[in-house]
Write a structure and sequence with these properties.
Shape of chain B: extended
Distance between the termini of chain B: 56 Å
Low-confidence stretches of chain B: 79-94
CATH superfamily of the largest domain in chain A: Winged helix-like DNA-binding domain superfamily/Winged helix DNA-binding domain
Helix content of chain B: 40-55%
Distance between the termini of chain A: 29 Å
Number of domains of chain A: 2
Low-confidence stretches of chain A: 96-127
Largest interface: A-B, 70 and 62 residues
CATH architecture of the largest domain in chain A: Orthogonal Bundle
CATH class of the largest domain in chain A: Mainly Alpha
Shape of chain A: globular
Strand content of chain A: under 5%
Largest sheet of chain A: none
Number of helices of chain B: 7
Largest sheet of chain B: 8 strands, antiparallel
Number of helices of chain A: 9
Mean pLDDT of chain B: 82
Strand order of the largest sheet of chain B: 5-4-7-8-1-2-3-6
Radius of gyration of chain B: 35 Å
Structural class of chain A: mainly alpha
Helix content of chain A: over 70%
Number of strands of chain A: 1
Structural class of chain B: alpha+beta
Number of domains of chain B: 3
Oligomer: heterodimer
Mean pLDDT of chain A: 77
Amino acid sequence: MPPVLTYSEEELIALLRQQSREAFNYLYANYSAGLYGVIRKVISDEQTAQDVLQDVFVKIWNNIEQYNPGKGRMYTWMINIARNAAIDKLRSKGEIMKSKIHGGEEVVYNAQKDMKTEVATDTIGLKDAVAELKPEYQVIVNLAYYKGFTMDEIAKTLEIPLGTVKTRMRHAMQLLRQYYKK
Amino acid sequence: MNIQEYIESGILEAYVLGALTEQERASVEADMALYPELTREVEAIEEGMRLHADSTAVTPPAFMQEQIWNAIQSQTKEEEPTNRVAPLPVSRETEEPKVIAFEPPKQLPKPAWQRAAVWAAVVVSVGTNFILLSQRNKTNQEYKALAAKVDSMNSSQSQMLAKVEAYDHERAMLADTAMKTVIMRSAQAGKQMTGMIFWSKAKGESYVAIHNMPMPPQGKQYQLWVIQDGKPVSMGVIDNQLVANAGTMYKVPMTITAGQAFAISLEKEGGNPTPTEVMVVGAI
């Protein structure tokens, strides 16, 4: 059943501070699917993704005092926790380091391959907006968003200037925004 | 500073994604404090990120909710000192290690019957392995089917438990003499409207029910408030399904331990920080 009462982010923080079961249920009902989606994009293995989701909720629960509303939305904060936890898990498994050591072409290839598998797993009916982007944009969004590369690392891996990485990143995010506005 | 160029550089996207170094991040935050255009742009990027996350949302399996809650509970309990593990006894053998002289195995020519026996054993072993393997596959399948069954039973059991708990709670609530009933009456002349709040001050628990209120017009929603020391504090925006199901009691997730009145107001969709048009109100 969807929650009958809804809360703004500010109210949600107050609710979470109460640390009640109801607060958890509300948080879970409203954010678990979004966060699990983010995690599944990074980690395809379901069991590992579930472990990460659990860690993420525990982290959100325990660190709510560290969230600073002045520095952006709560959802962004939670998405970044989920992304980072998933990426850390991936790194701990040594998968990402491999792709960092390999040359740029390999990364491009892997990134595109990843895109393909994502499209294949997205049969639930969700159209992947990222897959609609041109490959040169896809690679950057993929590396930054789902692999946790910094702009600098992307520039070095793909052997393109840092400025180009940033402008492509911006362009890609704008295309995504337009896509969702449709 | 050229704001447009700054925005076009893509640094704000990197900021929202957390792909900046600590130093770069601090500098972006300082710039944002100076230029509201940058803050607006960051908000737009965050909105894009939210839409992206929503479009890729995947509902986790149902059992996760209970599992994560248990993990959260045990996390807070784990802070107590854990049992110390007794050190393993270290063996103190002082005796001389026994030395066994190495001797090459004696090579004897194997008689024919021995070789035949070995072959027969191999054949039997392969055959047995094959049978065992197919049995194991079958067992595996059965096991998987059983595991799936147990999983679905577990999940329906926990759903039932939650229901029973809810009923039990409702029963306790109705029997609770400390539970106050607050009837909220129309604040609008000529309109008959009522809502009810059941409130236990000691537990901070409250339930809301709408008895007789019209569906909010398009783009509007009702919002629930508690008045604390003359100030309205939002208890959440009420979903229209509660309005449609008149008389349904719904537990308010927020804990309320103080207040002088409850009220429901009509607000824009998603609610407002302060009430604009109060519909019903009831003093405690």
